[in-house]
Amino acid sequence: MKLINRDVDYAARALVFMARANKPTVSVAQMEASVGVSRPFLRKTLQKLHKAGILQAVKGKGGGFALARTPQNIRLSDLVAVLQGPMKLNDCLFDKKLCQHHGACLLRHKMAAVETRLLAEIDAITVKDLL
Amino acid sequence: MKLINRDVDYAARALVFMARANKPTVSVAQMEASVGVSRPFLRKTLQKLHKAGILQAVKGKGGGFALARTPQNIRLSDLVAVLQGPMKLNDCLFDKKLCQHHGACLLRHKMAAVETRLLAEIDAITVKDLL
DNA sequence: ATTAATGATACCACAATAGTATCCTTCTGT
DNA sequence: ACAGAAGGATACTATTGTGGTATCATTAAT
């Protein structure tokens, strides 16, 4: 069970780097070493965040990425939602055939409650908390 | 992010089935239909639980599996631990090289706290709760 | 002996994750 | 105008994890 994957990890570091850098934009090349991942990979990740409206992007020479919101308004749950997709408790939720048995459904209800609380926790962590 | 996988799901159903059945042992063949998974697969899963001491196993004709403890003493966290392995927050924990940056470490500490609470939650759910 | 059960392994198929490579487009500085 | 530096988009590959099957050995009841 992995709570967050590498994409989210790298993204978090990059966002922290950008929040600290007192510049209008930061290029991937500038972040590469600090984040510890190859340029093409990081670019791909940040592009997703740009599409999701979490980052601004400036093309062309001297361009780069910048936070589209203040650090306290970017939540870990945002990154997880964009880079990992929605949480899947178990396959009961999607394959109804498996859910005819009472025991299994009880499990599902229990896990749904767990999921709600887990989401609330990663919702409470913002980029500001990581500075 | 998947909180529990199919193995755990199937295992939970099988354990509930065994807890309900008022018999010394229950064979995989008897559980197959109710759990909704093929015999060989379920057997493999239950063998792991046997090795882990969660189930008793009786070989030979008329044999089968049985709970090794009372339902309230078998926790969802036990199943997760055996069938999914330990939780990995992110790779920071295992690849120290990635952990030189303060931001990343803050993330790790935050996630460690989340993990602790999540484990406490699945620790609180027992087979008895699923009956 | 036969049969019904688990024990142990090895194997396979598919999907997800992690990472790379390539080419295109846009912008800036000269 | 043009060269170079940046992101945009896409396709590809490699590794791992998940889910599932097959096979043979072992044990015990009848």
What would you say this structure looks like, in words?
Chain A has 131 residues and is mostly helical. The first copy, chain A, has one domain (6-130): Arc Repressor Mutant, subunit A. Chain A has five helices and two strands. In chain A, strands 1-2 form a two-stranded antiparallel ribbon. In chain A, helix 1 crosses helix 4. The longest helix of chain A is centred in the last third of the chain and has 22 residues, at 102-123. Chain A is elongated and about 55 Å long. Chains A and B meet through helix 1, helix 4 and helix 5 of A and helix 1, helix 4 and helix 5 of B. The structure holds a DNA duplex (30 and 30 nucleotides).
The total strand number of chain A stands at 2
Can you identify the CATH class of chain A?
Answer: Mainly Alpha
Radius of gyration of chain A: 18 Å
- Output mean pLDDT of chain A: 88
Question: What is the count of DSSP helices of chain A, taking H or I runs of 4+ residues?
Answer: 5
User: What is the spatial order of strands in the main beta sheet of chain A?
Assistant: 1-2
Q: Regions of chain A with pLDDT < 50 over 5+ consecutive residues?
A: none
Structural class of chain A: mainly alpha
Here the CATH topology of chain A equals Arc Repressor Mutant, subunit A
Shape of chain A: elongated
Number of structural domains of chain A: 1
The CATH architecture of chain A comes to Orthogonal Bundle
The proportion of residues in beta strands of chain A is 5-15%
Oligomeric form: homodimer
